[in-house]
Amino acid sequence: MGKAKDIFIKPIKARVANDVIKKIHYSGKVVPNSQIHFGVFLDGKLEGAMQFGPSINKKGTMNLVKGTGFNEFIELNRMAFSDVLPKYSESRAIGITMRLIKKLYPQIKWVISFSDGTQCGDGTIYRASGFHLVDIRESDALRLNPKTGKVVHVIQAHHLMITKEFKHWEKTKGYQLKYIYFIDKSYKEGLTMPILPFSDIDKRGAGMYKGIKRVKQATDGNPLSSGGATPTDTLHLSEVLS
Q1: What whole-number distance in Å separates Cα of residue 150 and Cα of residue 146?
Q2: Which of 53, 54, 94 is nearest to 181 (CA)?
Q3: Cys-Cys link to 40, which of 48, 132, 172, 178 (CB 3.0-4.6 A)?
């Protein structure tokens, strides 16, 4: 297997990125309003994709950073990597992609993304990639199937929501975490909410992976640091608010 430095990132067409996301992402769904798409290649083969688009609540989200123009921020709303990619490919891919966005889309000053501990994890790759943690909130997005004993995320159980049985499934609480990356570092001064220390993740009991509490401490994601969690897939804002 190669090393993370062997991966190659470049823009790809929406339909190509959509195919990758549908095959690899835990939700099996794409975000229709995604506008920017990057492919993650290893040995010339497409093994992952990252998609960016405007937040649904664009006006509300832009107010997180004072002085932000309507088109000066974007949301990382889908990211999926195959198991073929080497360890630490996620954080390297994010770093390269942010530099590409700065070059190709200079109007974009910062990027927002969400991590769902109930379905994937608490955002180790964001912490390893220079994102700032700005919010931690409780979520009850998981439901316990009384027949199978397995938990199901509401976005995967949309077809069950209209049934009477589903309404009575036990809610399993977890946490969603909000992260911001400043492409233009000067915009950090306009942040309207405090940057939270990563230690708050454990203090709040928000350290999770696929709905299960982590036993190791949340760190900055540096492989040389102790603890940490398995890298996570990204969550779209509409799913956080559901």
Answers
A1: 8
A2: 94
A3: 48
